[in-house]
Specification:
This protein is an alpha/beta fold. The chain has a domain at about 1-175 and about 210-235: NAD(P)-binding Rossmann-like Domain (Rossmann fold, 3-Layer(aba) Sandwich). The protein is built from 9 helices and 13 strands. The strands form 4 sheets. A 7-stranded parallel sheet has the order 3-2-1-4-5-6-11, with helices on both faces. Strands 7-10 form a two-stranded parallel sheet. Helix 3 packs parallel to helix 4, helix 5 runs parallel beside helix 7 (about 245-255) and helix 5 (about 185-195) crosses helix 9 (about 295-310). The longest helix has 22 residues, at about 85-105. The structure holds nicotinamide-adenine-dinucleotide and uridine-5'-diphosphate (UDP). Nicotinamide-adenine-dinucleotide binds near residues 12, 13, 58 and 112.
């Protein structure tokens, strides 16, 4: 098949492109390189089945493809809050442009939605039937509400125009090729630990997250795309939940670091708890994550250590 991956030069997108090429598909990676980079896909450039199209998804484009994975959108709070109006445009106009293309060329389209559609959840763990608790006017809203509207557009194009859609809700994902400067907990803590600097826990560290290794996520994404009788939304993530303080301690142990934990103010609207209920993915996709946190963190730390070495 000919497959379009928007945001293909980003962290998750680059792993997805690699996987799809490995399966023998032609892959077009569309990216404006805002948070992604050519370094993430440089190893794919020599493959004649791989193309990079430098394009902003906010502008229309027409490509003849069979599948569209729509991932283009900055994903870390630091990056999506840098230009919040642009973040909304990327999610909303990007979804309209990709859905318009899917309708025109009769492609199947998968939207990379997020656990952020549940906001600061009052139902725990989060199931797909929960409608969420999102602040519509806070500093995370540009991302949360943008992604919620993208889901709405997917469903409306499906109902109104019979577009063949899939929606996945991705929970915190980590692994090699995360950007060093994205301010996320995984990259911050690992880099701080490797440099023996203080580990910056925001708040008292009692908030929880559940971390999924990127190759597990990509497996779930591909299964969902090729599942013929299920459009979602479906949660994809690892249900093993950690407090952020426990997570800091785990990273100190794994890296053998001399770092100490320090506490900093909690950002506004930071969700207090997050854990996916993945029963639906288990039932419909026969999917579950396989990589244990310690093993995934060790691989990620190895990647960051090599990156620092390069710098
Ligand atoms: P990332 O920032 O590494 O990747 C996003 C990619 O989109 C980058 O390559 C960036 O340059 C590109 N992009 C951004 N705006 C664009 C635009 N206007 N036009 C074209 N390209 C644009 O982030 P990621 O972690 O790889 O996330 C990929 C997708 O998965 C995003 O849609 C994100 O919302 C979703 N997601 C990620 C996580 C996670 O934990 N990483 C969790 C939930 C959802
Ligand atoms: N966090 C932290 N220290 C950091 C970066 C993040 O304690 O240096 C916390 C953050 O406040 C949040 C959790 O770690 O509670 C996960 O943050 P991240 O930005 O990685 O993802 P998200 O909040 O989008 O789940």
């Amino acid at each position: 098949m000919r497959i379009l991956v928007t945001g293909g030069a980003g962290f998750i997108g680059s792993h997805l492109c690699e996987r799809l090429l490995g399966e023998g598909h032609d892959v077009i990676c569309l990216d404006n390189l805002f948070t992604g980079s050519k370094d993430n896909i440089i190893h794919l450039m020599d493959d004649h089945r791989f193309e990079l199209v430098r394009h902003d998804i906010v502008e229309p484009i027409l490509l003849e493809v069979d599948r569209i994975y729509n991932l283009a959108c900055p994903a870390s709070p630091v990056h999506y809050q840098y230009n919040p109006v642009k973040t909304v445009k990327t999610s909303v106009m990007g979804a309209i442009n990709m859905l318009g293309m899917a309708k025109r060329v009769k492609a199947r389209i998968l939207q990379a939605s997020t656990s952020e559609v549940y906001g600061d959840p009052q139902v725990h763990p989060q199931t797909e039937t929960y409608w969420g608790n999102v602040n519509p006017i806070g500093i995370r809203s540009c991302y949360d509400e943008g992604k919620r509207v993208a889901e709405t557009l997917m469903m409306d194009y499906h109902r109104q125009n019979k577009v063949d859609i899939r929606i996945i809700r991705i929970f915190n994902t980590y692994g090699p090729r995360m950007a060093q400067n994205d301010g996320r907990v995984v990259s911050n803590f690992i880099l701080q630990a490797l440099r023996n600097e203080d580990i910056t826990v925001y708040g008292d560290g009692s908030q929880t997250r559940s971390f999924c290794f990127v190759t597990d996520l990509v497996e779930g994404m591909c299964r969902m795309m090729e599942c013929d009788d299920f459009i979602g939304p479906v949660n994809l993530g690892n249900p093993v939940e950690n407090t952020i303080l426990e997570f800091a301690e785990k990273i100190i142990t794994i890296t053998g670091s001399r770092s100490k934990v320090i506490f900093k103010p909690l950002p506004q609207d930071d969700p207090k708890q997050r854990r996916p209920d993945i029963s639906l993915a288990g039932e419909r996709l026969l999917w579950q994550p396989l990589i244990a946190l310690e093993a995934g963190l060790a691989k990620t730390a190895e990647y960051f250590a090599a990156q620092i070495g390069k710098g």
